[in-house]
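Raw record, unedited: DUF3953 domain-containing protein
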Amino acid sequence: MLKILRYILSTVIIIMAAYELITKNFEFQSLLILLLGLIMLVMGLEEFQKKRKAYGWLLVVVFLFSLFVSVKGFLLH
């Protein structure tokens, strides 16, 4: 389940990033950062399932930081 979610999020992120690079329209930057944070959360949950807690916690902290940055970006626009 988590692997499928990771692949779907990766595909959406790549498409959005390519769109932003081609059109030079960066108004969805905060959404892209939020999606990148969500993929870090999914990867962190996968690491917890593999009993690698150090990497899991690191990825959860990265998710929380990207969540903070994206919310701040949404509020500034």
